[in-house]
């Protein structure tokens, strides 16, 4: 048993050699305590920790030991100068108490073989004894130095805080260096080190909130005390690691600094509301964080640009080699849009976790703008050539346009409204290019087919003008069977609009000979509108047929007052109906006086705005040019 006692640091410290001059020793110690807690005292804690063992729980509680020592101190120094023997013994007992005290605190995160509840009870007793010693320091404060015990002030609270700092530093150093199977999947030593540090911070803060906090009085604010220590320690180590980082390591470090740490640690559900995050600030200094973010963004921009260019080059090579796109679900398909969306989406998903200032995302999305412009130019050049795969390629690109449009329209935040507008404008130009290519034969025949309108043969129904046009459309549109249904529907809406626009343009250029011709023509127009609507059915635009019928009604009406009311209704239904269009429509009428024309125009202008706010109908009349009537009005 004697051999075991010699190796037990707890018992060994009770046989401390008697100091030759304890008063001189404690005066020197007191001068140290006025500046900082004794590092020597804290350095001895780890050496004593293992020897404390289970015996610690069997000894007298620290709170009771502290109370007894304070009582002895009061008795010893209240009756006059104590003897050297008594002062020396009390000093030795205080020394043993303090070492036991700091071992108990040091065991906060590294419990010995004792149970967790027993360890926390020892810590609670240690905290109570620290408070007792702080009170006793205050009681001796202000007295003449020769009447104060030489070991006062003990400054246990300052020593306690210094010990917590050393504990945190030690635990972070240990976490950074230890091997862990949980981080084996990470690709670099730096990533593994950052992950281990972050996990240690998270686990220890959760331990503080879940167990340790209750051992301290509320005024200590233990959670924020530990949070500040771990914040500074974690920050220092990340700063050290930031000197020489690979690109992947840089993004991973930023991921922890800007996402994992603030969101998944400080705002963890068990920590939320307890940590004063505003007081902690950023995990990395602003200058360093700005430098790392700029480095990350520059690299990511270059990656995105290269990936997008590679995707477009691959698509262009396929076009130029006369390869037809693959057919999926019976329609032509190109993977280009999906590839582009994945590139941008992946980059922005990572960006949103890595970078704090979300407006910087435009540095990445601006490459989407550039890509779309290049994409549109490439398709323009392709359709100018003579390629056997032109039709199927364009059909596949219309599908891509629709996918990209849906993606960009759905973006909120990552793409600015200005960028979104420019991207959608470019996509509209891309769509127009594809539309013109697929409907080139239709555009060529529209004018020719509708030229007989308002001729005698058309008026007396001997010439089936619209029927012939629809037969031609039916034959040509059969070639669109391998176009994706939603794209085919959009294309048919375009064809429907072009047919009606040509019909209206032809009508507005006609010189009416009299009311009878207008009435018969109005009936023919109404019949034609019904046939056109029936041809396009659900895939067309119903409001286009309404436009034709409204125009027919304007031609049919001969009474100025009725005509005025109808013109106001048309202006409300079609807000893009300009004064020039009103004048052009009235110019078709043969029985109106100049006063009637002025009255109708004035009434339309006064009443048109009443319905504009609730009418979101697409532009129609603005696509009907009436420059000739504008010039005529300007000369009047």
For the largest beta sheet, what order do the strands appear in spatially? 1-2
What proportion of the residues is helical, as a percent range? over 70%
Q: Can you count the beta strands?
A: 2
Query: If you average the pLDDT, what whole number results?
Result: 86
Structure description:
With 636 residues, the protein is an all-alpha fold. The protein has four domains: 2-159, no CATH class; 178-284; 289-438, Tetracycline Repressor, domain 2 (Orthogonal Bundle); 559-636, no CATH class. The protein is 71% helix and 1% strand. It has a two-stranded antiparallel ribbon with strand order 1-2. The longest helix is centred in the middle third of the chain and has 35 residues, at 286-320. The protein is elongated.
Structure, briefly:
The protein is mainly α and 636 residues long. The chain has helices spanning 2-6, 9-13, 22-35, 39-52, 55-58, 62-78, 84-106, 116-140, 156-177, 189-210, 222-241, 247-265, 277-280, 286-320, 336-354, 362-384, 390-410, 417-438, 440-450, 456-459, 465-477, 485-508, 515-536, 542-556, 560-573, 579-587, 594-607, 627-635, and strands spanning 326-328, 331-333. It has four domains: 2-159, no CATH class; 178-284; 289-438, Tetracycline Repressor, domain 2; 559-636, no CATH class.
